[in-house]
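Section handout 9: paired folding examples.
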Amino acid sequence: MATSKAGLNFIVVGASVAGLTSAIGLKAAGHRVLVLEKDSQLGGPGLVPSGCPRVSPSGCKILFDWGLEAETRARSVLSEGFAVYKYDNGGKSPRREFIGVNLWNQELLAEARGGFLQLRNQDLLQILYDAAVKEDSNPLVTVIFGAEVVGVDCDTCTVTLQSGQIHRADAIIGADGAGGVVRRTLMLEEGVAPETHDKPTGLAMYGCASPNSTTRVVSSIERCFPSASIPRKLLEENGDFATFYEYPEHTITMGSNRGVIAYCSGKEKDIMMWVYTPDSSQDGTWTDVAEKKFVDVLGPCAEEIEKLAALAGPATCLQIRDHYNLQSWASRSGRVLVLGEGAHPLPLTGLHKPASFHTYSIALEDGAFIGKIFSRTRNRDRVPEFFHAFQEHRHVTPPTNAFFEPRSSRIRVLEKEYISLITLPDGEMAAARDAAMRANHADGRSVMDNDLEQMRDGMIWVFTYDPADDADEWCVYILSTAAMKLMGSDGRIGGYNGAASVPQASATISINDRSSFPRSTGRREYYQQYVTIEDGPTHHMQTIARESKNLN
């Protein structure tokens, strides 16, 4: 048994939100983590936006539970919902046509133990970076910048850098995105060519940056702070943009195959602006300047959208794609895993992307889940088991074991529904959508009530998720499986792992019906209800305890 009291050695490829969150979680579990980031500075270079997170309650609660609430709130804007407008008003008014408002249910947010926060990508990365490398008596996390991984050997558990340097670990985690080297390695292992299996959807996304940027030194690392927003001061000096600041300071503008998401970001309340357009021939990255100017891709729209776009600096352009679904997030060796966008890439500008509600929350969840389950073991031989446990809980296709819920597959569906809702082509469906929203607003309800309630309920399900509870649920499953190995045909404990030398025991085990217990049940209480062990002899209880020790 390859168990180390000092913990396991992990390599994390990518100092992304998912990568840094994984490092924090694994550090808390007592493991050593080497984070390799190809960019020379945190967040990457350039004058174009790298994202402006909208962190939902499921992600906020992770930051809060890790003691990062004060710092996160100080750098963010609290969102209480969003206002809905029409993209093109036919030139009737300089203003966008107002449809209504959707407000988040405060009871729901209280139950979810989190808020809905909007902040800069660089600020979130800095918060996570500082938490990961925070000096301890025995530092466990090392981050190396300018370390581009060009090769991954899943069998030897090594990575090769562009410099030729080789690093070896007990496990490798890929947090370098949908186009990252780790995901590409797993696709090739499945016999799939990465360049032919990510199909365009017919939409593209443009994001804007402010004309100016500043540079400063943070944590002894020189990093660029390119703004991913249009500064509030610039807006105040160049016209009336009051509708973008009206409560709840977050707007969604719906058009025919087009749309705009604009919201306040960071403590300065600058405006972040993302635009859906028909597909572009260019497919760039978050740090590539688009070939076209922002104002050139808008099409017919309200005048205030044109004026806002005119104040934007360089833009990015990325095609919205349907990505190939990996059959396995873990390598055949079980030593290499992808998470975050590498595991479950989502449509670019739905609820969960930089112009979205949950891209960052899902990344936070992935990292927190990995850290939580690996707090249960220091045994190198169990890495494949634990990596596959991650996939079982968060895979894009429903797992065969009904004990688990396919979280990321449901989120993927919500993403597509959200994009379709915003960009419906003009016609009967778009007219029905608008009429339903207007009627709800006239009746004093949120625009997504009634006919759109299913989508809203999906958001509720997303918001209230807790990765720590999910990880504990997996532990319940493993412990119950261990208990069932001891159970004889008469329902009493017999041999363990088929060992004939273990005598029949006087204890009984009852596996209760999980369906009767809600997901909100505390997991310790849940275990007591789900697996009941009565009056077992000492050696059987020691067997269960040994499994439990590896999982607690």
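Moving on to protein 2 of 2.
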Amino acid sequence: MFRSIAATCHLPEGEWIMDEDEETVLQPGGRAGAEAVAELARGLGFETEQIEADTEHNSWTFAARKDAAYIHTNVFHMDDEFYVSMDNLPGCIPLGGRRADYVAFTEDLFAAMARDARFSDVRWERR
């Protein structure tokens, strides 16, 4: 299952760092937004792994864990548009993990972002 939240982010996008030929992203923008999402996840009772740059997808990634739930989270920030995608692909939820944990996490994170002044126009992104 895959769900994605879109929003306007009111945090600085941050500097994109490119290689010397300006062809390869070494560090995407949007780390502040990713930190804010991880903070909201912790407020929902999840432990979060260290946020890491995913240069292949020009995003920031971290896992959120709580009980049996293990949610892989990617955060993209381009201009004012901000996307949070969450996967519970096989292997992302250990044995005993439940789809209900994933659905609850995504819905709770959506509500937390909608209440947070750092984000506005929070909506489900359909792909």
